[in-house]
Amino acid sequence: METNLAARYANTPEGREAESILRACVHCGFCTATCPTYQLLGDELDGPRGRIYLIKQVLEGVAPSARTQLHLDRCLTCRSCETTCPSGVRYGRLVDIGRKIVDDRVGRSALDGVRRSALRRGLLSKSLFGGALALGRLAKRLLPAGLAASIPDAPAAGAWPAERHARRVLIPRGCVQPSLAPNIDAATARVLDRARISAIAVTGGGCCGALSYHLSEHDEARGFARRNIDGWWPHIEQGIEAIVVTASGCGVMVRDYGHLLASDPAYAHKAERVASLARDPVEIVAAEWTTLLPQLAPGRNARRLVFHPPCTLQHGMQIRGVAERLLQAAGHSVLPVADAHLCCGSAGTYSVLQPGISQQLKANKLRALEAPGPELVATANIGCMTHLQSGTSLPVRHWIELIDRGLAMEPAAASAGPG
Ligand code: SF4
Ligand code: SF4
Questions:
Q1: Ligand 2 centroid from CA 188, angstroms
Q2: Contacts from 84-88 at CB under 8 Å and sequence distance 24+?
Q3: The pLDDT of residue 391 is above 60
């Protein structure tokens, strides 16, 4: 699609990048059919092709309005449209550029600004978030059922294996996951230990930057990326072979660090290296499966389950079907689910900022997940886990916890925690 950039964007890196993305779009509309917001709202401007058109208009000089902003805000950044697109249009990148430009031009109401700022502060501060969660758990019995359901219980993390193998990886402890579900990282470390890989927990880092980036706070996101790179770099110099990011929502962001910091001469090279080392647990476990499979007790804790592939895994990283195959090979019955490509409505802060659409998507997703009659829902991202758990009595677990439980209980040298 030919685009004539307005003078104010013509010589900016974002303008040039957006122009090259727009050039790939042939306006065929195939993507519209798989867009969850178009399916719900039925408005072309709430689908990818319509949003692309809006962004193109703005880049060509049309003044954006609050309406333009609303259509972009309603996008989940689920990137289902990227998976569908036959022309390889990088929609996710385009909508991030478009949102930033529109936000800078249109601004936010005072209330919306306060809400977004409070969300960022609350979720990005480990102490604030952890404290609020601990209070919520204490008061859970006194809260209305709907609110109480959104506060997950705290499962015990279990032991973290001592460092004893020559092969080593990093597991960064993210901002919200260690408080919400500390067992996920520990279970990953135990599974990797059985694959003769030691996992080193990095506790000093912070948010991957995704939350800020998708709220158009790009500089803040770059700051988080630099802080993480500084924290991880000494381990990289000492020879770790991968950075295992156990939440796919964060993993997809870390994989983008090279792009994020491409114009920062002090960090561009390091960011590329970090991005190249980022792995989802599913990639490592699949690669080490021949070592792990003989250690799995046949039928141990085997469940009838459904797998919800997070958008960040299936569309962002383009990893599809692997966790399902591993769970099946580990003895579980993985039941088919309709419309598995559709978002559950969690999408970072979307569930707070667009609650109506988010709740409808959650209800639709849970209906599809519960239809085959599973005992449990497995997934790969903490955001999807907590979002789905708030609407179902079925347990919702990270798939790695099921592999961890399936491993025979041979003693592994272990420490009490990740340090
Ligand atoms: S499917 Fe791809 S090329 Fe077709 S309209 Fe959507 S983004 Fe453009
Ligand atoms: S990212 Fe998801 S919600 Fe946004 S336009 Fe693409 S398919 Fe639709």
A1: 31
A2: 84/30, 84/31, 84/33, 84/34, 85/25, 85/30, 85/31, 85/48, 86/28, 86/30, 87/24, 87/25, 87/26, 87/28, 88/24
A3: yes
